[in-house]
C-alpha cells in the first residue's frame, strides 16, 4: 500500500511526466512545495552551498521522497539518465544537493527519469540541457555595496566565493549592457559573445530576481544587430504565425479546462465555467491555470482556480482587503461563503 508521501510524490511526478515527458527530483521537490522555483534559481546561480539549505525539509526527508520517486519511475518503466549540475559562477563548480554531500544521495538527485516514448536524440538533448551550466549572473544591487577585492563599487556585482566583486575585479568591465526587450537581439548577442552575463535585480515586492538585460561584448552586439536587420521581415512573419498558433492552443486549452470545471462542479453555470477558464488560463498571467498541474487538468489545480473566482466574485473578500484586513484573516472570514458556493455547484 502506497504511503501518503508516496502518493504525493507520484502525483507530482505524473504532472511533470505528462507536461514534459520526463521527471527530475527537483520537479518532485517543487511539486511537494518543499522548494520554490526561486530557491532552485538561487542554488543554480551558486548563491547557496547546497539545495538542502533552502528546502523546507532535511536531507533525510528528501531521500525518502527520492526513494518513492525511484519506485514510481521503475513501475512506469521510465529510462534512467544522469545529468551534471554546475553552478552559474565563474569557476563553474559542481552543485551540491545536500549539506553533507553523501555521494550516493548526490547521485540520486542527479538521476532523471525519461519516457521511453522519447527518441534517443531527444533524450540526449534533455540530458545535455540539464548538464549545461547556467548563465553567469550580474546583480544590479538595490543597496550600497563594496567590492570584496578592491573596496570600490559599481552598477553591477558578480558573486565569487560567496562574496561580491565589481566587474573590473571579475574581468568583465569590457562588457556593455543590452536592456531586455528584444529577444532575438539578446539571444544572438549572447551567442556571438565569448563572455556574457545576465543582469538581474531583486524585486522586494515579488520576492524574486527579475531580468533586466545582458552584458555582452560590444563587437558581439554589433554583429547581432546586423543579423537582426538582415532578417527582420522574416522574423515578423514568423512571430505572426506563432501568435496565431498560440491563440489556437489557448482557446483549445480553455475549452478543456471549462469542461473539467463542469465535470467537477456540475451545477456551475456554463458561462461561469467558461469565464473562470478564460481568466485562469491567460498566457503569462502567472495564475493557477498556467501552472503545470492545471495544464494537465489536475483536479486540485482546477479546484483552486474555481475557489479563486468564487472568492473574488461571490464574497466581500476584495472589500475586506481594501479595508485593511490582513489577507489570511480575510480568507478565513469568507471561507464559509466559499464552501457554500462550492457545495451548491457540486450538488
Q: In words, what does this structure look like?
A:
By secondary structure, the chain is an alpha+beta fold. The chain contains 14 helices and 9 strands. It is globular. Helix content is 52%, strand content 12%. The chain has helices spanning 4-20, 25-31, 37-44, 59-75, 103-110, 120-131, 183-192, 218-230, 232-264, 270-280, 292-295, 299-313, 317-322, 327-346, and strands at residues 22-23, 79-82, 111-114, 137-139, 158-160, 163-165, 175-179, 197-203, 208-217. The chain has a 4-stranded mixed beta sheet with strand order 4-8-9-7. Strands 1-3-2 form a 3-stranded antiparallel beta sheet. Helix 1 packs across helix 4.
Secondary structure layout:
Layout (H helix, E strand, L loop, with lengths): L3 H17 L1 E2 L1 H7 L5 H8 L14 H17 L3 E4 L20 H8 E4 L5 H12 L5 E3 L18 E3 L2 E3 L9 E5 L3 H10 L4 E7 L4 E10 H13 L1 H33 L5 H11 L11 H4 L3 H15 L3 H6 L4 H20 L1
